[in-house]
Amino acid sequence: MSAVIFFIAAIGAIAGATGVVFIRDPFFSVLSLVGHLLCLAALFLLLRAEFVAAVQVVVYAGAVMVLYVFVVAYVGGEEASLSERLRGSGTVGQGLRAGAVVVGVALLIELMIALLGTGLKAIHTKGAPYVPGPHAYGTPAYIGTLLLTRFLLAFEIASFLLLIAAVGAVVLAGRMHDHPDRAQAQVRA
Amino acid sequence: MNISWYLPVSAIVFSLGVAGVIARRNPLVVLLCLELMLNGGNLALVAFARMWGNGDGQILALVVMTVAACEVAIGLGMIVALYRQKIPVDVDELRELQG
Hints:
- The structure holds two protein chains of two kinds.
- Chain A is mainly alpha-helical.
- In chain A, 76% of the residues lie in helices and 0% in strands.
- Chain B is mostly helical.
């Protein structure tokens, strides 16, 4: 049963990742990434990481992807004409695309040699024994205990990092009041 | 299921992300491909955590998600700022990003 779920979720995750890279329209790339994240959450559930799977669905596939969809709707309109114009001129884009395929395939082969060739025998197990219960491995209680005891410093640094990122995003994307076309912005508003 | 099956999936997702970061020109899609790379790493971390049976890898995966959320906030803020300044939203056009 778990093998069936694993293969469905793994194929879904890889298909979603392929869609992100190859779909031309950024909006459908975002939707493809949402599918990828949901399949990845299923894989996390199979690995008994229940809290991480829940965070993945709620925060990542929910909040972060909504942010992406908003920005794609705000910015994405001009992309097609611009890319067509660029495709007509210059070979930099084509060279980069060929280079990307070469780099990706080389990296995949290297990782596969590293995984399948050497390390795989050591991890060819079903994992550590798992005992169900309210404080079992991967539950919110377990993760919360770890975060507030052993990884308290990482927890605090992560919260501080989120604060800095929120302030930085407001500073970057907020309206600048000394900007030259302030009058134009006011007219639009 | 053996833990070893999860690692090729994570390697494939990571490689796709690398190829996308190099090939795509829209910075929005470049950010999406960065997310793919982080997710490939996350899957490997959670798989290794399951193998050892302790939660360190899961905590590290949560921290990676936090960093990814910060990166999205800053990156999308920069893209919106570029769009407001009427600069083309295309990484090939952003070679001289000064001032």
